[in-house]
Design a protein that fits this description.
This protein has about 425 residues and is of the alpha/beta class. It has 2 domains: about 5-65 and about 335-430, Alpha-Beta Complex (Aspartate Aminotransferase, domain 1); about 70-330, Type I PLP-dependent aspartate aminotransferase-like (Major domain) (Aspartate Aminotransferase, domain 2), CATH 3.40.640. About 35% of the residues lie in helices and about 15% in strands. It has 14 helices and 16 strands. The protein has helices spanning about 10-15, 60, 70-80, 95-105, 120-135, 160, 190-205, 225-240, 260-265, 290-295, 315-330, 335-350, 380-390, 410-430; strands at about 35-40, 45, 50-55, 115, 145-150, 180-185, 205-210, 215, 225, 245, 270-275, 285-290, 360-365, 370-375, 390, 400. Helix 3 runs antiparallel to helix 11, helix 4 packs parallel to helix 11 and helix 12 (about 335-350) runs parallel beside helix 14 (about 410-430). It is globular, with a radius of gyration of 22 Å. The two termini are about 25 Å apart.
Length: about 425
């Protein structure tokens, strides 16, 4: 289906440029939606044809403060005048060091060494390299595989893909080309933890680390699990001297209910990765943060023991300035309290969806609300109907979900949830859920 069938008014820049664009996660032969956007503000998206959408996605969970926040915008404008970019090899600058210091002060000890990059996938790749080289630098060979979990997602680069759920549709085609890792069931009770520990005992000599998304597995289906599960995994890793990596790219900076998901579980990993909301949805940036034990393994008189990784735009000053400003907003505006309120609203508002036919589950945690359907969804039709209702919601697989900006008001959140319920009812009346 082409864009003609959707009826969007197309500005010249769209007509000239769209034939040359390759969109993400998109079958370009049939994709019906490429919606021309003119501007964003707060929790709203403004289309080129004059329509206005309430945003339920916060641009893949990044715009935690809403779009175009004046404090972040001012910080970036100021930095743009002074120094848009400078290489981070042999040179350092105030925005990066200020950001590193702020991050470390927010994080539980002993996470204290920050390595910057530009994307979440790359942050995960760096964490993987750190974990593997940690053992090599200590003279222990053969520990080159990672352990991850069914339902997990860690990025789209080849290394990160290898630790995603192998049944996850986006990456299943690449199994023969990916690194061989151990992807195992997530242990959710005492018996499953015992099975997991037995697996660790059998494979510990070949494994460098365990990596997990704490409390919520995002792109794998917005799957939620208990802090006790995370505590059990951490204890097993500690008992068997395996490094533990937390991928907080989705959960970090308030999304799960606290500033970091690890806080709720009271567990501190050896390495943690951040991106997404790090800059408040302004400029691409990520961070991989390690404990002194990990960092010290790379200190040597041998240059070969150094971490040989250096993204060209590592610690970009514009991005670091945006991130510093974003963290300042958490200090002066009630973001975590807003997340708690969103959780209450979502729990109340989404409860109506539980009684709808074909709804398998409704779950809420922090500023994440999920309606899971029993069958695969008519994704293109759903996205069109949501736009018709004045909302931007992007379902995938068998779930319809909301990850709004923390600054969203109740009226807008109500409209988002009402749109979900209405569209599910329409879908059911069409017989469009494909079991």
């Amino acid at each position: 289906m082409s864009n003609e069938s959707v009826g969007f008014k197309k500005p010249k820049w769209f007509v000239d440029g769209f034939p040359h664009i390759w969109l993400p996660y998109t079958q370009m032969k049939t994709e019906p939606l490429a919606v021309p956007v003119e501007k964003t503000l707060g929790t709203h998206i403004y289309l080129s044809d004059g329509r206005e959408l309430i945003d339920g996605m916060a641009s893949w969970w990044t715009a935690c403060h809403g779009y175009n926040h004046p404090h972040i915008r001012s910080a970036v404008e100021k930095q743009l005048k002074e120094m848009p970019h400078i290489m981070f090899g042999g040179l350092v600058h105030k925005p990066a060091l200020t950001l590193a210091s702020k991050l470390v002060k927010l994080l539980p000890s002993p996470l204290e060494r920050v390595f910057f990059s530009e994307s979440g996938s790359v942050a995960v790749e760096i964490a993987m390299k750190m974990a593997i080289q940690f053992w090599l630098n200590r003279g222990i060979k053969g520990k080159h595989r990672l352990i991850s979990f069914h339902g997990g997602y860690h990025g789209d680069t080849l290394g990160a893909m290898s630790i995603c759920d192998p049944e996850e549709g986006m990456h299943s085609l690449f199994q023969g080309a990916l690194l061989s890792q151990h992807v195992v069931p997530l242990p959710k009770n005492e018996d499953e933890l015992k099975v997991f520990e037995q697996f660790i005992e059998e494979h510990v000599t070949e494994c460098a680390a365990v990596i997990i998304e704490p409390l919520i597995q995002g792109v794998g289906g917005m799957l939620m699990y208990s802090p006790e599960c995370l505590q059990g995994i951490s204890e097993i890793c500690s008992n068997h001297e395996l490094l533990l990596i937390f991928d907080e790219i989705f959960t970090g900076f308030g999304r799960s209910g606290q500033m970091f998901a690890m806080e709720e579980a009271g567990v501190v990993p050896d390495i943690v990765t951040f991106s997404k909301a790090l800059t408040g949805g302004t400029v691409a940036l990520s961070a991989t943060i390690a404990s002194p034990e990990v960092f010290n393994a790379f200190l040597s008189m041998d240059d070969g023991a150094a971490l040989m990784h250096g993204p060209t735009y590592m610690a970009n000053p514009l991005a670091c300035s945006a991130a510093v400003a974003s963290l300042e907003l958490f200090e002066v505006e009630p973001r975590i309290a807003q997340v708690s309120q969103i959780e209450i609203w979502l729990t109340e508002l989404l409860s109506e969806a539980r009684a709808l036919p074909n709804v398998k589950d409704v779950r809420v945690k922090g500023a994440v609300g999920v309606v899971e359907l029993a069958g695969n969804l008519p994704i293109d039709w759903l996205r069109r109907r949501f736009i018709d209702k004045g909302v931007w919601i992007r379902p995938f697989g068998n779930i319809i979900y909301l990850t709004p900006a923390f600054s969203i008001n109740k009226a807008d959140l109500c409209h988002l949830v009402e749109s979900i319920i209405q569209v599910i009812e329409e879908m059911n009346s069409r017989g469009d859920a494909r079991v």
